[in-house]
């Protein structure tokens, strides 16, 4: 018994001396090991910083957002009780010079009895319409500022390519100065607006565009305006498909206004449909096709030049198709290869200019020169 007790005391004393020499403490198990023992990365870490593309976005926004404005338009209508009440709509626009001229969509200000423009510094001004082009859904309005204002540079929309980066600035849902980015998703899109007009040659983008963005600028990576944000696809909010009117369409209106003090688009006075391939052959027309004239407007330039519209309809499959009208195969030396060929040709024209058309009529081709008239809409 004494031996067993002696052994136990010896073990306890030896253990105590060992632990004391190792300077052991129960708290050591709770202390994390030094970072150098558990981390093999660099001793000093840094934030990755801003990438080149991010920096580009920031620089463009800083240089452009002060030239983007919010437009509130007021229309007075009667309610069910025949009371006249104001109805307001909002959209965007952007300054194109330092004197207060602003580009926007025509549908943003259409029918408005009053317009109020709010600048980035929250100052407000009454605005008036200088010119508008409903066919391209663009309008020029003006405010009378008390100082010179920042404005945007208008770029060239003709060289735009699918895949290039674009930035949109506007006031979606009244949230002013909002920036979204994306790419050009497609070119040459056509869509029908609420009034039934077809807008041709639109730029499609996946940059988020929502109600309130209409009229705002679509910018390239240099900060130049290449389009005017116009419409979205879908019921009321963005699903990744937006459309912008190419800025070169607005330049035509701006140039004529600068020279004449007003704007009236050139007008041919026809309704057309594009036919080619099997449909063209079924109508006894050349397979390469073109623009088939469906009707000619009375008193128009087209009527004065003797252009002919459809005179009958024929059944092709399940559809009735107009037939017997002139087929426009060539415009000013360029073959007609798409439905917007005539629209694009007219964009470079003014009332009084001449358009040379190559027509297919009664089995043979003929050339006709048409002196363009003017009207509130193109075609």
Question: Major sheet, described briefly?
Answer: 7 strands, antiparallel
Q: For the largest beta sheet, what order do the strands appear in spatially?
A: 5-4-1-2-3-7-6
Q: How much helix, percentage-wise, in residues? A: 10-25%
CATH architecture of the largest domain: Beta Barrel
CATH structural fold name of the largest domain? Thrombin, subunit H
Question: What does this 3D model show about the protein?
Answer:
The structure is a single chain. By secondary structure, the protein is α+β, with helices and mostly antiparallel strands. Helices cover 19% and strands 37% of the residues. A hairpin with a 5-residue loop joins strand 11 and strand 12.
Describe the secondary structure blueprint for this structure:
Layout: H1 2-21, H2 35-38, H3 52-64, E1 68-78, E2 84-95, E3 101-104, H4 106-109, E4 114-118, E5 124-126, E6 128-133, E7 138-142, E8 165-170, E9 178-192, E10 198-205, E11 217-219, E12 225-232, E13 242-246, H5 247-260, E14 266-267, E15 270-275, H6 277-282, E16 290-296, H7 301-304, E17 312-316, E18 319-323, E19 327-331, E20 334-335, H8 341-347, E21 354-361, E22 364-371, E23 373-374
Antiparallel strand pairs: 1-2, 1-4, 2-3, 3-7, 4-5, 6-7, 8-9, 8-11, 9-10, 10-13, 11-12, 12-13, 14-23, 15-16, 16-19, 17-18, 19-20, 19-21, 21-22
Summarize the structure.
With 379 residues, the protein is an alpha+beta fold. It is built from 8 helices and 23 strands. It folds into 2 domains: 52-258, Thrombin, subunit H, CATH 2.40.10; 266-374, PDZ domain (Pdz3 Domain).
């Amino acid at each position: 018994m004494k031996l067993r007790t002696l052994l136990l005391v010896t073990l306890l004393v030896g253990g105590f001396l060992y632990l004391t020499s190792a300077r052991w403490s129960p708290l050591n198990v709770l202390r994390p090991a030094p970072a150098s023992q558990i981390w093999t990365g660099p001793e000093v870490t840094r934030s990755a910083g801003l990438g080149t593309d991010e920096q580009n976005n920031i620089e463009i926004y800083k240089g452009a957002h002060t030239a983007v404005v919010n437009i509130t338009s007021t229309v007075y209508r009667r309610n069910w009780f025949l009371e006249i009440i104001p109805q307001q709509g909002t959209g965007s626009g952007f300054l194109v010079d330092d004197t207060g001229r602003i580009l926007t969509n025509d549908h943003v200000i259409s029918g408005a009895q009053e317009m109020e423009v709010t600048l980035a510094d929250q100052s407000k001004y009454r605005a008036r319409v200088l010119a508008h082009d409903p066919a391209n859904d663009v309008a020029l309005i003006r405010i009378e500022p008390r100082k010179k204002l920042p404005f945007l540079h208008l770029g060239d929309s003709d060289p735009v390519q699918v895949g290039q980066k674009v930035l949109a600035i506007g006031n979606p849902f009244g949230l002013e100065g909002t920036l979204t980015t994306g790419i050009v998703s497609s070119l040459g899109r056509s869509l029908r607006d609420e009034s039934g007009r077809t807008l041709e040659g639109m730029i499609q983008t996946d940059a988020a565009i929502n109600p309130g963005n209409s009229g705002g600028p679509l910018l390239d990576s240099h900060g130049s305006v290449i389009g005017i944000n116009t419409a979205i696809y879908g019921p009321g909010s963005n699903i990744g498909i937006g459309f912008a009117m190419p800025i070169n369409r607005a330049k035509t209106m701006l140039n004529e206004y600068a020279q004449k003090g007003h704007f009236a688009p050139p007008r041919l006075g026809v309704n057309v449909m594009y036919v080619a391939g099997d449909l063209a052959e079924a109508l006894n027309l050349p397979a390469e096709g073109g623009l088939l004239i469906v009707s000619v407007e009375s008193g128009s330039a087209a009527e004065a030049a003797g252009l002919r519209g459809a005179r009958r309809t024929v059944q092709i499959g399940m559809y009735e198709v107009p037939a017997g009208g002139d087929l426009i195969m060539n415009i000013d030396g360029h073959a007609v290869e798409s439905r917007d060929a005539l629209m694009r040709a007219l964009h470079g024209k003014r009332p009084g200019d001449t358009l040379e058309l190559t027509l297919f009529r009664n089995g043979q081709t003929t050339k006709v020169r048409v002196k363009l008239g003017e009207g509130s809409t193109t075609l």
